[in-house]
Amino acid sequence: MKAHITLHKEFSIGETDKRIFGSFIEHLGRAVYSGIYEPGHPCADGAGFRNDVADLVKELDVSVIRYPGGNFVSGYNWEDGVGPVEKRPIRLDVAWGTKESNRFGANEFAAWAKKVNAQVMMAVNLGTRDARAAGNFVEYCNFPNDTYYSDLRRSHGIGEPHGIKLWCLGNEMDGPWQICSRTAEEYGRVAVEAAKIMKWTDPSIELAACGSSHFRMPCFGDWESTVLDHVYDYADYISLHTYFANRENDVPNFLGRSLEMDCFIKTAAGICDLVKAKKNSKKTINLSFDEWNVWYHSNETDKKIEKWTEAPPLLEDIYTMADALAAGCMLITLLKNADRVKIACLAQLVNVIAPIMTEKSGGAWRQTIFYPFLDASRYGRGTVLRCPVKVDKYDSKEYCDIPYLDAVGVHVAEKNEINIFAVNRNLNEAINLEAEIAGFGEMNLVEHRVLCNSDLNAVNSAAGEKVKPVVWQGGTIEGKAGSQRLDASLPPASWNLIKLS
User: Are residues 77 and 185 in the same domain?
Assistant: First the structure.
């Protein structure tokens, strides 16, 4: 099969915001306890943070990490997680049916995020709490001193403010599964009042309001429009969430789901612009895709978990080669929409539907989805290029006209590099890729790295990695500076990173 793409310096979509390479830690399952935090572990530092996990997070170069939820946040009292550990209350987390010890809270998370070189995206509870509690949390985290909550923080041993600049106004508030879910009108009212207090407390912060919980919510569209009518002047982003599944083991259909993700993004952006026009505003609301991933493997196992235990193994999906391809398509979709998607969080980071897994008191290891995220995070920071693709298409059970090749290019101007990310959706044939490259000066082929396995159900484990990248041979680049042609072969069912310099 043949495919043709064009990469031209003037075909620019926009600059990637490094925050699209973000992730998520919720007080859910083993994400925190025996995930990022395990005092007494052989690899733990003095604060109880697992260094083996921190090293893998730094390897991914995760830019921003959302915390503490997720569904958990809608029943969370942030005050429970600060102050002397021995005085913190044990609470029932009714969102996930577990016990929460609160041994780990906002101050511990801020310290851990600093350790792994990531920005904090803090969520406030707009389920069981109110606008005043949200403002108090900002004061605790960000105000220097000489107020009740800033001095409370200082009494807890945190002299300097955390300076958290990115905040979520609740989580999935349209979902009936959410603690104290709300109508769009109800949420819009509480969100705008919380936003006012939060921004009046610290005008430098940015706020993400809740969008619909996913693309197929009955209220999608009306929800965004109503909420933005309330919060437009105070919010900076509206959130999008999506998870994809492959329960019928229909990989061609599974790999077409990123088309739905692209439609979700473009529709949400259009609604934001409609409200902008209605309000005659000069301000643009951008998108925070702060939950995305594959999630379905653990659903049946989770039903067997005993309730009211602490940090049980919930949502521990073990990802396949096919899942890595789907994640790769989702990453390419985010890059293609870099003009509007400014924040994105792979949900989640450790143990819970995560690229990193751990054993309690044992080791840590990389899942299959680790590698597409690694490549995109390391090499996707630059100018995203509009990349016309000519290739055959196919239809699946749910989608039509799915291109066999999904691809995007990123130009890193300061290094004069072009990085091409591509997924071959054809499960049986290699794609002979021809890429026209113009406007960049003379380019050389540095490396073609491939993630593939003939067994699409292959997984990684603590015992070893069956799915990991290899260097692919055989590509060529020809022509003169300013007008060149790249030829490369993309194996069947593969994630590809082609680096030019």
Answer: yes
Active site residue 429: no
Both structure tokens of 414: 């300061």
**Cα 84 to Cα 102: distance, rounded to the nearest angstrom:** 11
For residue 408, give the nearest of 1, 10, 12, 21 by alpha carbon. 12
φ, ψ for residue 412 (rounded to 5)? Answer: -100, 95
Maximum pairwise Cα distance, the chain: 70
The active-site residue, picked from 291, 359, 417, 478, is 291
Measuring CA to CA, which residue among 229, 321, 319 is closest to residue 276?
A: 229
Residue 25's CATH number: 3.20.20.80
- Whether the CB-CB separation of 93 and 27 falls below 8 Å is answered with yes
Q: How many domains does the chain have?
A: 2
Q: Is 477 helix (H, G, I), strand (E, B) or coil?
A: strand
Residue at a domain's end among 310, 345, 379? 379
Q: Rounded mean pLDDT of 192-213?
A: 98
Element of type H or E holding 101: none
Annotation marks residue 185 as catalytic? no
Single out the catalytic residue among 100, 139, 172, 224: 172
Q: For residue 332, give the nearest of 417, 424, 437, 433 by alpha carbon.
A: 424
Per residue in 251-293, pLDDT (tens digit) is 999 999 999 999 999 999 999 999 999 999 999 999 999 999 9
User: Do residues 126 and 101 touch, judged by C-beta distance below 8 A?
Assistant: no
Q: Which residues does 155 contact at the CB level (< 8 Å), separation at least 6?
A: none
* Rounded-to-10 torsion of CA 313, 316, 318, 323: 180
**Per-residue model confidence as pLDDT tens digits over 415-468:** 999 999 999 999 999 999 999 999 998 999 999 999 999 999 999 999 999 999
How many angstroms separate the CA atoms of 449 and 426, rounded?
A: 18
The residue type at 414: E
Over residues 36-87, the pLDDT tens digits come to: 999 999 999 999 999 999 999 999 999 999 999 999 999 999 999 999 999 9
CA distance 255 to 406: 10
Same domain for 196 and 294, yes or no, is: yes
Residue 236 shares a structural domain with residue 374: yes
What is the residue range of 398's domain?
2-9+385-500
Residues 374, 393 share a domain: no
For residue 30, how many other CB atoms are within 10 A of its CB?
Answer: 23
Strands (DSSP E) contained in 73-137 are 91-93, 98-100, 119-124
Separation CA 326–CA 315 (nearest Å):
18
Looking at the structure, tell me whether residues 393 and 467 fall in a common domain. yes
Select from 379, 395, 426 the last residue of a domain.
Answer: 379
